[in-house]
## 1
Amino acid sequence: MHACEKCSTDNNVCPKCLDVESEEQKEVKLSELEEKKQHEQAEKKMNDFIKGLKERSRRTVRRLYEKGKIEWKN
């Protein structure tokens, strides 16, 4: 038996085993959610910037970003 993400968050239980989460697990979960949110915001800003480039430049930037040769800084 498993719990969905919303139910597990509301009831403070592990979605896999349904055990009550400790304070440390809650903090780790919150920090992971914050990191994910920040990453999504950075991706959105990068995509908005890339939209203004020419197609050839856009493809080059995306390819280099995916290879890890460049990184996006706000």
## 2
Amino acid sequence: MTDFAGSVDAALFSKLTTTPGTAFYGTRIYNMQAPEGVPRPYIIFSQIAGGNDNLTPNDSNDLTYRVECVGATRSDAATGNGYIQQALGSIQYELTVTNYSNYALQRQESFSRVDNIGGTQYWRRGDNYRIRFDHT
């Protein structure tokens, strides 16, 4: 059995590391959590909802991913999120997952926040993306 969720994670990572703008972050793009001590800014992404929607016999999936930039300043986070929106926000872009057709990739809810951890501020800007696939 194929690890569909892992395949979507890999496709999203590939899109973020090869698209102009987000490719600037290179190896500072992480699934779920960045390692401790990584220099900012960096990008993190994770699935926050969804799965197989059980609506059709062709194994359709409706997923929501949170993709965000974490920066040392508000400006760093906003700039990084602008790059993310360029990489993922246009309907012309799609993710490549073997044996699946990505028929929708839509930017939805935006968020902005700051975390104070150990006296250090972590500025966060991002969006949730709805990603839908059909098995081919």
## 3
Amino acid sequence: MQKILIVDDRQDIARALSIRLQSLGYHTAVAHDAVMALRAAIQDEPDLILLDICMPAGGGLSVAEHLRDHATASAIPLIFMTASKDPEVREQALSLRPAGYFEKPFDSLDVVARIAEVLGDTADA
């Protein structure tokens, strides 16, 4: 069973994504800030990370940069999620070459389809 780490300070979004992904057979873990995200990514070695960009205790871009410098975590695919419409934020995020980038509000079917594509799954959304 593939593990997905969901990182979002909005508990409602994290919960909804977790329920959706678990219903498709994924194992999920949730972190609500950058510190928790880094710890979980390094300790749990998920197969993919859904990463909010704007969070307390450091943002998602900082998490991504730290993970890229880590020996084992650098290979974990990242999919960014953000409520920001700032073109600079988008440019910074895309410069980190994520596996996906979604602006909130997003369609969970699109996110699930991208996850399946990245992980090589054939599960139906």
